[in-house]
# Entry
Amino acid sequence: MPTIKITYSDSSYKPNAEVLAGKLNFPLVDSAEISQQSSQNGQADYYLEYASDGLCLKSAVRNEHGPIRCDFNSGASTHRRKYGGGNGQAIAKAVGVSGKFAPKVLDLTAGMGGDGFVLATLGCEMLLLERNPVVHSLLNDGLQRAAIAGLEDTELAAIAARISLLDTDAGTYLKALPTGPCADIIYLDPMFPERKKSAKVKKEMQAFHGIVGADEDASELLELALARARYRVVVKRSSSAGYLADTAPSYSLEGKSTRFDVFALRKLPG
Ligand SMILES: C[S@@+](CC[C@H](N)C(=O)[O-])C[C@H]1O[C@@H](n2cnc3c(N)ncnc32)[C@H](O)[C@@H]1O
# Structure
């Protein structure tokens, strides 16, 4: 795990930074100290920084990659929300969203919340689980900012209200539940195996891989999910990847570079 320190762009964000540093048990540094540190050996690999546009992850190496943050109110996110293809998107078909049915979805591997947000945009009630404390903090901050932006955008407010987030391990969560289905659809998007030395893997993705590591328990999660979903389990994979746990799904839907493997358990309502 790389070394990560918490910082803030100006003193008005110091209280937020202190709370996060205490929660994650990471050192807190004043941003003014960072440039001094870089000439010494006590430098971190990354900084989680509070600034006017929210919490972001920055590399300690200048210009290695841009800041990584969750922004559900950005131009790109708003464009996808408005013109992204609605229920015609492969992810929507995989999950079974239709004009007649908006499922309750448990996303076991929330990550930066991209897929969860798309499904919430289509009307799904989303429960997101994320176990990595750094990723959870970034996503939690993005969702909080979406809720604030929703004060001036009723559509965004309704989407944000459909999303809940827990900082927990999905396997532990599922095993602690009483028996029986816990969601209409269970969605699973474990980390793709890292394509080492490939120039195609963006620096941001490399940073994400370095912090999250390999999701070694993904096969076990699939087994747990199959026992707990009411209608379907959906596994997102890279187009070139084999089936998770070598288990063939009922069918697959191909996206551009991704594939959705659908394990159909019961007929959807509607
Ligand atoms: C590939 S990312 C998911 C990306 C996400 N679908 C999106 O659209 O942003 C996988 C994430 O799942 C998380 N994860 C993996 N296994 C998990 C588990 N057992 N419990 C909770 N989170 C898990 C990892 O920490 C990582 O952040």
Q: What stands out?
A: The longest helix spans residues 133-149. The two ends are 46 Å apart (CA to CA). The mean pLDDT is 91.
